[in-house]
Amino acid sequence: MAQVKEGNFVFPGDVVEGADTLNSLRLGPGLVYRNNGTEERICATRAGVLCTAPKHTFYQDFRQKRYIPSLNDHVVGQIVSRNADGYRVDIGSAHSAQLNGLAFENVTRKSKPNLAVGSLVYARVSLADKDMEPELECVDATSGKAAGFGELKGGYLIQNISLSHVRSLLQSSNVLLSSIGTHIPFEIALGLNGRIWVNSGSIQTTVAIANAIKQSEYKSPEECTELIHAILKTL
């Protein structure tokens, strides 16, 4: 098995070099921990580019259409049914996710949120196991606060965005969203399941922002700036 570093293209079975030197490690999509009794390794399970993120996080950037839930992923979901414990939520994976009615900030059994079928929620994956249905929470894992999670009211839902594009929008080096924000106030929820929710002061502006996001995937920072200026002229 080959050893690889950040930024390298990896194949299934490749070992992440340097990961074993960290005291604590968070694994994202495309990586798995393996222990054969004598050696501990972090191995790739898919073909893609090895990336790192803050807080000792390793993950792979790869292209896929079907979302595979990963622990602590932020996702945009749609309520598809209600039950005694909470809600069934479509997050674009092979199976619907369960969202407990108590998995919100400052709720009790008597004050659970009343979400209608069809409502959109921004949530965090709290359980991701290949043998179990995924579970969601609308609170931050560390603070227990809402931290932006919860029902998404109004706005516009962009679907079928490539997962690699969503991840690129989350990078500090990506200029698109920050550039738009200097001209237009807006709200956004970036789902690592290929869904993005956008809301602004008007429908026209919201749709314009959505179009900019969809058209920016393969553009350079300079081309993104030109795209934003072109869209602003239409408003």
UniProtKB/TrEMBL annotation:
Keyword presence, Metal-binding: no
Subcellular location: Cytoplasm; Nucleus, Nucleolus
GO CC annotation terms, alphabetical: cytoplasmic exosome (RNase complex); nuclear exosome (RNase complex); nucleolus
GO molecular function, one term: RNA binding
Record keywords: Cytoplasm, Exosome, Nucleus, RNA-binding, rRNA processing
K Homology domain mapped to chain residues: 155-203
Pfam families cross-referenced by the UniProt entry: KH_6, RRP40_S1
Highest taxon listed in the record's lineage: Eukaryota
Alphabetical GO biological process terms: CUT catabolic process; exonucleolytic trimming to generate mature 3'-end of 5.8S rRNA from tricistronic rRNA transcript (SSU-rRNA, 5.8S rRNA, LSU-rRNA); nuclear polyadenylation-dependent rRNA catabolic process; nuclear-transcribed mRNA catabolic process; poly(A)-dependent snoRNA 3'-end processing; TRAMP-dependent tRNA surveillance pathway; U4 snRNA 3'-end processing
UniProt cross-references to SUPFAM superfamilies, sorted A to Z: Eukaryotic type KH-domain (KH-domain type I), Nucleic acid-binding proteins, Ribosomal L27 protein-like
Signal peptide feature range: none
Family: Belongs to the RRP40 family.
The name this protein goes by in its record: Ribosomal RNA-processing protein 40
Protein species of origin: Schizosaccharomyces japonicus (strain yFS275 / FY16936)
Organism lineage string: Eukaryota, Fungi, Dikarya, Ascomycota, Taphrinomycotina
Name of the coding gene: rrp40
